[in-house]
Amino acid sequence: MSPAGALLVAGTTSDAGKSVVTAGICRWLSRQGVKVAPFKAQNMSLNSFVTHDGAEIGRAQAMQAAAARVEPEAAMNPVLLKPGSDQRSQVVVLGRPVAEVGALDYRERKPALLRIALDCLDDLRSRHDVVICEGAGSPAEINLRDRDIANMGLAVAARLPVVVVGDIDRGGVFASMFGTLALLSAEDQRHLGGWIVNKFRGDVRLLQPGLDQLRELTHRPTLGVLPMLPGLWLDAEDSLDLSGVAAAAPAGPPVGRDVLRVSVVRLPRLSNFTDIDALAQEPGVLVRWATRPEELADADLVVLPGTRATVADLAWLREQRLDTAVQARAAEGRPVLGVCGGFQMLGRTITDEVESGAGLVEGLSLLPVRIRFAAAKTLARPVGTAFGETVHGYEIHHGQAAVEGGEPFLDGCREGAVWGTTWHGALENDGFRRAFLREVARLAGRAFEPAPDTSFAAAREQRLDRLGDLIERHADTGALLRLIEQGVPADLPFVPPGAPVPPGAA
């Protein structure tokens, strides 16, 4: 059976599991032969991706497109916000940056952006059997509802049925679900068709009395209780607080005698941290985040990752005395890798009148490179070679590098044991990653050998299949299909704030 229509997956909070559930439904539908696409009207994320036609979208939507087995495109995430500070964000519309705005300025743009989002959604629906939409934050942000374009504002404008995901692992899931519904207007409540409980541990029979009472209180069914799935490592999405982003343990025992230790500097405005995922998948590679000099001391490789605020994060690096720790490593011939913003920090100078307005800033002087920020953002999908291996990557940066020496390396350079590149995603190329890690191990004096058959693409597919299994085995797929096919539920009663507890629920 081929359903037609769309569904919005909202959440009681950020990080409730909207991205995971959206991806899981996309993979499950794709398995049924349904032509499905993901959609997120507005995303706030420092983790982005470049489509084949050079558009920048949220990395989570690219992941969901992979789950749906379709090519990612700008229409899947028409509005992307990339915070550069607590007060201002870069606004990316249809894959291209259009402005740097504060929260109040952005609010005035929302009616026009809603029209763009609705046009994109209509376009996707015209070309696919089903579109699974993901909300942003919570649909009950009552201070933002009048100009909402990602949650109930989108649902009402596009007549979308809504399911709400709640994270039971953090506690208070029943209160957050009831409270979400009770804060919605009568018009918004009509769109909410059911609940999905996420990250459950234990025997679901112990949860059933709560689910029964939730249905009595809200008149909506629970459409799934999804168990906790540790180790998914799926592309993180819209949270600005990256404290929950943890590096993984080794994927398996080392092939050689030694483990290879990688310390990744956790910059305050860390972006595209998915660059690290492929390292964490490699058997015998231990990846950990670092914020103090001593956390770099025993590392065989230090990585300076991408950042949305290169100059500000370089200042932070110096405040934490991490700059001298990185420079000392390089002087000793110990490996350092800089990616995008991290590469820019490794150069001699940075001239930035665009992102920070700081003008000329001294870099770490570990690579013979001078960086000048351009107003136009580079968005590209380059292909090249390194260590004799073909490498595919993607670029998202304002900084333009003038390389003044060293050995060429993926549009950047190498000087001794220090490498720098503007390319994200390079480490996802299996042959290149193995060759790079062999060189790192040689320089670090480690008896480490990469596994010959580790496939990052296969590992990602396995994780997406686990999400499809999660929906197929633990969600009421029949009820989800009915919502998708039939649209907004009919005749659901309004639940006012402070609704009485049903008899026997106390």
Automatic annotation (TrEMBL):
Active site (catalytic residues): 340 (nucleophile), 424
Lineage: Bacteria, Bacillati, Actinomycetota, Actinomycetes, Kitasatosporales
Family from the record: Belongs to the CobB/CobQ family. CobQ subfamily.
Chain ranges of the CobB/CobQ-like glutamine amidotransferase domain: 261-431
Domain CobQ/CobB/MinD/ParA nucleotide binding positions: 8-231
HAMAP family: CobQ
Gene3D superfamilies hit by this protein: 3.40.50.880, P-loop containing nucleotide triphosphate hydrolases (3.40.50.300)
Keywords attached to this entry: Cobalamin biosynthesis, Glutamine amidotransferase
Function: Catalyzes amidations at positions B, D, E, and G on adenosylcobyrinic A,C-diamide. NH(2) groups are provided by glutamine, and one molecule of ATP is hydrogenolyzed for each amidation.
Keyword Methyltransferase on entry: no
Pathway stated in the Swiss-Prot or TrEMBL entry: Cofactor biosynthesis; adenosylcobalamin biosynthesis
Pfam families according to UniProt: CbiA (PF01656), GATase_3 (PF07685)
Organism: Streptacidiphilus monticola
InterPro entries on file: Class_I_gatase-like (IPR029062), CobQ/CobB/MinD/ParA_Nub-bd_dom (IPR002586), CobQ_GATase1 (IPR033949), CobQ_N (IPR047045), CobQ_synth (IPR004459), GATase_3 (IPR011698), P-loop_NTPase (IPR027417)
Official protein name in the record: Cobyric acid synthase
CDD domains given in the database record: CobQ_N, GATase1_CobQ
Domain of life: Bacteria
